[in-house]
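yo

u said u wanted the structure for the complex thing, so here. seqs first:
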Amino acid sequence: MSSKHVTHWIGGKTWDGQAERHGDIYDPATGQVSGQVDFASAADVDAAVAAATDASRTWKRISLAKRASVLFEFRELVKKNATELAGLITAEHGKVASDAAGEVARGLEVVEFACGIPHLLKGGFSENVSTGVDSYSIRQPIGVVAGITPFNFPAMVPMWMFPIAIACGNTFILKPSEKDPSASLLIASLWAEAGLPDGVFNVIQGDKVAVDAILQHPGIGAVSFVGSTPIARYVYEQGTQNGKRVQALGGAKNHMVVLPDADLDLAADAAVSAGFGSAGERCMAVSALVAVDPVGDELVAKIKDRVAGLQVGPGTDPKSEMGPLVTGPHRDKVASYLDSGVREGATLAVDGRAHPISGGAHSGFWLGPSVLDHVSTQMSCYTEEIFGPVLSVLRAPTYEAAVDMVNDSPYGNGVAVFTSDGGAARRFVSEAEIGMVGVNVPIPVPMAYYSFGGWKASLFGDTHVHGTEGVHFYTRGKVVTSRWLDPSHGGVNLGFPVNT
Ligand code: NAD
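structre next:
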């Protein structure tokens, strides 16, 4: 057993206190405990807020040019350390090395976006709104803000938040997932090396105790959350009740609709890539494949062929395309949907439990890729988020029935349509009640300069993350009306100001 010990990062250095509670960190590929992570108390959160509040007094006054230069430096350091960062992710999350490197690269795009902060914070100016009066708008930081993040992207999801928050002049407290906490500490040390002043970026490790302390702390002005829908709802309700600005991104059930005129080979490739990449532990993973009649049987046959060729193995093996699930209990829960699906009338087209990796030499949290066919909208494998390598295939008699299926889902994160008909695709884009739509693109994750976020039970709050909405979330608008009299003269006037 390794002696890895992961703790908090407060005020520019590793916390040196003694935690009262800890959690185990696992290597999902072996199932072994690889270390411990400290769980913060409310007092530890207080300490982080105090450090962040202190740093906020100067950081918000630092010039835009200086803030941007720290971000550029941070970007270089993340690039230089990308392989190490990806290695930490694979060791604790289990995803394969190329996938971990991909998440670091997508996170870096947000850092690059935030490097343009001088441009992004430009306000408006109107000369002479009234005689001798000018008006202009500015956006100012909120102060101390926090981010609470899920296990499935331990680098990228935090990077949706903190580059923009910090660039806008806020100080930041990150509460990463307790399942894969190490990436956050490497990121903290890279910020320090980049010249970010102490206390601007802090990390608090832990569980619900830390989250509740963040939600109740009067010193924190805004909270970004990404995770499952029940916790997102809870964070939104508690945070807003306590007067905070909150954006809380929740779970998903992403559909991929395949119209009869689609290129079925392209669609099968896409369904397998998007269904089983990162072992299905992506909030934008394709989970429900909707085949519009009559292409279902042919599509399922093509998918089965491709699934049979997938390389499942430890994330450190360059040949692996899919790794293990994050924990034992999660693996068991995902596998239970195969039983419930069959019980409720689905056909098990591919049973991942029969994959050699499941009972083989590796004792980790393994489940091979699985396909449930003839799934209906009442089955629990459809109504619940599985978040694992299980692709459910539904049949729809018509385009309209497929769109109804998508829109009747309580979730609204991502959706894709596969077709060769531009008119049908255009109609689908307009009719889908979903936040992110792909046309012949199975995982339509927006670039950093657009905003990421779902609709319905996939997002609580008004603003999506990164892009312009991210800049707005982390700043407050102010409008200034200014008069410089020339020559100076006064005079009292109790009337309501009107334009003259
Ligand atoms: P989770 O909701 O269990 O945990 C998310 C965060 O909340 C973690 O930091 C965790 O420590 C904390 N937390 C857990 N239980 C809590 C509780 N009872 N009270 C307060 N805080 C609590 O999610 P997860 O399992 O880490 O991540 C997977 C989920 O995240 C999936 O549902 C997935 O769809 C979702 N997700 C959504 C997006 C998106 O953009 N919408 C992106 C990534 C992941």
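The mean pLDDT is 96. The pocket of nicotinamide-adenine-dinucleotide is lined by residues 148-153, 157, 175, 177-178, 207-208, 211, 226-228, 231, 249-252, 283, 385, 387, 413, 454, 458 (CB under 6 Å).
cya
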